[in-house]
Design brief:
Blueprint: E1 3-4, E2 11-12, H1 13-17, H2 22-26, E3 36-42, E4 45-53, E5 57-63, E6 70-76, H3 78-82, E7 89-95, H4 101-114, E8 122-128, H5 134-148
Length: 159
């Protein structure tokens, strides 16, 4: 059985297929699509990726340490995008390492991947990596991009 966890966040990857993560979006009144589970070796490190899209947020876990690690929320400045400008992302660390520029860069890059569709969503990112080099970042972004494109995200619910 594959397990991700530690520090009170221990759960089996096999449980995700049975809907163990359904409570995250359900508590926010969102609809969920089944999670995508991927494992790859990136620059010599076993890397696990879990992508769970909801109608209003995409929850992504990237781990090389077998745990969720730092939990970050990334919101997109919709006004800037609608005005035809570049997207700006505000990153808020909810749990874990604060003020880590590498983790902030990961969060912003992955938010840009998630928001390449015509619909803007928040990103909830759990990240725990050993190798914080630029080549690893590029490979993680490519892996997420390939797998976000593989499913259609649910339409956002209006408030």
């Amino acid at each position: 059985m594959n397990r991700i966890g530690g520090g009170g966040f221990d759960f089996a990857l096999d449980d995700l297929e049975d809907g163990a993560m359904a409570g995250i979006g359900s508590a926010m009144g969102a609809t969920q699509t089944a999670p995508t589970l991927i494992a790859a070796v990136i620059n010599g490190h076993h890397t696990e990726l879990v992508i769970t899209p909801y109608s209003n947020v995409v929850f992504i876990i990237v781990t090389q340490l077998g745990k969720i690690g730092t939990l970050m929320q990334v919101n997109t400045d919709i006004a800037g995008v609608e005005a035809g400008g570049d997207a700006h992302y505000s990153v808020n660390t909810l749990l874990g390492k604060r003020d880590d520029p590498v983790l902030t860069l990961y969060a912003q890059q992955l938010a840009a991947v998630v928001n390449t569709t015509s619909v803007t969503r928040s990103l909830l990112l759990g990240i725990s990596i050993k190798d914080n080099s630029l080549p690893t970042l590029n490979e993680v972004v490519k892996l997420v991009k390939a797998n976000v494109a593989a499913f259609s995200l649910p339409k956002p619910q209006s408030s």
